[in-house]
């Protein structure tokens, strides 16, 4: 294992945030001694979210923080997005235990005291040396961190549910780690990734990608593979803690990643490691936090999508991008790559963004994480253009809740799901098709429409570009062996049949009277001539049957062919 010291980082392409990688994990005899002492100290019971945060601090994920913030740092972060020493840090690390028993313990503590932090089964997790005790104003925190005190915001709600009225600041030492269950075999701490990137694989650059509640989809893949064109490695970190109940289960998201990576990603350049980080629901501020976490894992680049850490409609569409305008690149110390919303363009026949694709919405299939989850809930494998089947097949087993309720409804209204994924459906009769006389509304869409839109996309997403190519190749292939014989035969038959129609109509015109004796039974010459004129125009509309000899004129060279093979000197 790599023995990381501060001067060791001088040899690497990256540095930990704040200049040092924090390590507060006690081991060996020191841990044994402190475990004994921890049982003699006052004890505060903490929930799983706090236990996870303690581990993040101790293993360096949140470097340079060595514990929970004192009041000055806490307020500086909320108001300025920085520690008091000027180091960029977007979210406060505060510890305000709740509960009557904990409140009584806190009343007995003073600055300089030590207290044991124990889990819900009363096992010591860490020791906190108290450096500050201060009042915890929930409204103040919510307003500054989230920009709202609305309890419908999940971050705001968490403050009022989980936090007490007094905060403790100070450094921690970790006594016991959390077992990560099915993720333990994939678990990587910062010291592990620095070693893997720069000692084992000899990378010169690594891009980090943190993702939340969704299985791996083609939007993620687009971002990853764009990065792999110029960056040596990828660190992919699906979050596996504190997701909403209606999301896809963590285990299945990880498995969907593994299935796609094994099949579609270059071997040895992508590292998959779960990230057990508590959700803060801080929108753009959380995006900055994730970038710094990637930095502490050794990444030189942070890949940020359009709605990274988004929370409904609480923040602007590209708030997770614009927040980086507040910081100088050297302050962050990691190169941030911002990606616009990815969709699948059926006219381009590829994933794209508005930055690279000029085509109309009628050709687009949107890649919405929420929409994908809702389709899985409906029991529908999303189109291959937005989710690889290897990912969707596993994810559909882990979505919660599964199926529909007694009224055939899912978590999200079906109309909203259709609009988010298939915007064409409300205005076009089919993918790339004609406009509806009257656009459909979100409210009138049903489960039948969701099925119809999916079937249309499955059948036609790759058809649009394929048929365009077929039209171009039909007149572009000078090697006519590349064109289907039956198409040319059909064109020749069409031409021959239409010529037969024209010949008959010419005879009819010759015989037609100038004035018909009975306009319901017979045609006059004027009407017969009009039929002939239309038939001749139809003949012109029929594509020509192109054979090899029709392309002779396209093959010509200014010089004898043999002179193109080597020396340009003419032979005698």
TrEMBL record:
Gene3D superfamilies: HUPs (3.40.50.620), Sulfate adenylyltransferase (3.10.400.10). Pfam families: ATP-sulfurylase, PUA_2. The keyword Transferase applies. Keywords: Nucleotidyltransferase, Transferase. Its EC number is 2.7.7.4. It comes from the Bacteria. Residues 15-177 form the ATP-sulfurylase PUA-like domain. Pathway: Sulfur metabolism; hydrogen sulfide biosynthesis; sulfite from sulfate: step 1/3. Residues 185-394 form the Sulphate adenylyltransferase catalytic domain. It is an enzyme of class 2 (transferase). InterPro entries: ATP-Sase_PUA-like_dom (IPR025980), PUA-like_sf (IPR015947), Rossmann-like_a/b/a_fold (IPR014729), Sulfurylase_cat_dom (IPR024951). One of its GO terms (molecular function) is sulfate adenylyltransferase (ATP) activity. PANTHER family: PTHR43509, SULFATE ADENYLYLTRANSFERASE. This is Sulfate adenylyltransferase.
């Amino acid at each position: 294992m790599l023995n990381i010291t501060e001067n060791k980082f001088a040899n690497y392409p990256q540095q930990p945030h704040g200049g040092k990688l924090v390590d507060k994990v006690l081991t060996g005899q020191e841990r044994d001694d402190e475990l004994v002492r921890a049982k003699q100290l006052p004890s505060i019971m903490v929930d799983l979210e706090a236990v996870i945060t303690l581990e993040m601090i101790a293993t360096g994920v949140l470097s340079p923080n060595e514990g929970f913030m004192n009041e000055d740092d806490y307020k500086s972060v909320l108001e300025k997005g920085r520690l008091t020493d000027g180091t960029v840090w977007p979210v406060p690390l505060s510890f305000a235990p709740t509960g009557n028993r904990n409140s009584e313990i806190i009343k007995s503590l003073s600055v300089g005291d030590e207290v044991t932090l124990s889990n819900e089964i009363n096992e010591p997790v860490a020791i906190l040396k108290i450096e500050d005790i201060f009042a915890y104003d929930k409204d103040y925190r919510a307003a500054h961190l989230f920009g709202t005190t609305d309890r419908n915001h999940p971050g705001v709600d968490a403050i009022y549910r989980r936090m007490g009225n007094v905060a403790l600041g100070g450094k921690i030492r970790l006594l016991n780690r959390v077992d990560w269950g099915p993720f333990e075999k994939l678990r990587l701490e910062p010291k592990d990734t620095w070693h893997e990137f720069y000692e084992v694989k000899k990378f010169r650059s690594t891009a980090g990608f943190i993702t939340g509640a969704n299985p791996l989809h083609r939007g993620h893949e687009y971002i990853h593979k764009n990065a792999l064109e110029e960056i040596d490695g990828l660190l992919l970190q699906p979050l596996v803690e504190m997701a909403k109940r209606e999301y896809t289960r963590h285990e299945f998201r990880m498995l969907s990643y593994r299935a796609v990576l094994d099949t579609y990603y270059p071997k040895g350049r992508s590292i998959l490691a779960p990230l057990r980080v508590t959700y803060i629901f801080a929108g753009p501020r959380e995006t900055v936090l994730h970038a710094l976490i990637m930095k502490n894992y050794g990444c030189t680049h942070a890949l940020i999508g359009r709605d990274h850490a988004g929370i409904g409609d609480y923040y602007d569409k590209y708030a997770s991008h614009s927040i980086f305008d507040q910081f100088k690149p050297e302050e962050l110390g990691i190169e941030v790559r911002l990606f616009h919303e990815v969709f699948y363009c059926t006219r381009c026949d590829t994933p794209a963004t508005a930055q690279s694709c000029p085509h109309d919405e009628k050709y687009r299939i949107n890649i919405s994480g929420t929409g994908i989850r809702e389709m899985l809930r409906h029991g529908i494998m999303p189109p291959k253009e937005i989710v690889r089947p290897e990912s969707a097949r596993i994810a559909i087993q882990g979505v919660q809740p599964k199926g529909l309720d007694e009224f055939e409804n899912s978590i999200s209204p079906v109309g909203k799901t259709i609009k988010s994924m298939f915007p064409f459906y409300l205005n076009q009769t089919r993918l790339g098709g004609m406009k509806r006389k009257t656009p459909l509304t979100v409210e009138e869409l049903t489960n039948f429409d969701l099925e119809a839109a999916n079937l249309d996309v499955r059948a036609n997403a790759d058809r649009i570009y394929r048929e365009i190519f077929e039209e171009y190749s039909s007149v572009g292939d000078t090697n006519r062996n590349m064109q289907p014989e039956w198409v040319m035969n059909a064109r020749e038959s069409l031409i021959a049949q239409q010529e037969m129609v024209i010949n008959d109509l010419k005879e009819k015109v010759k015989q037609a009277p100038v004035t018909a004796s009975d306009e319901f039974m017979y045609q006059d010459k004027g009407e017969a001539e009009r039929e002939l004129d239309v038939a001749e125009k139809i003949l012109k509309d029929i594509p020509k049957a192109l054979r090899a000899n029709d392309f002779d004129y396209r093959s010509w060279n200014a010089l004898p062919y043999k002179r193109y093979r080597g020396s340009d000197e003419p032979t005698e």
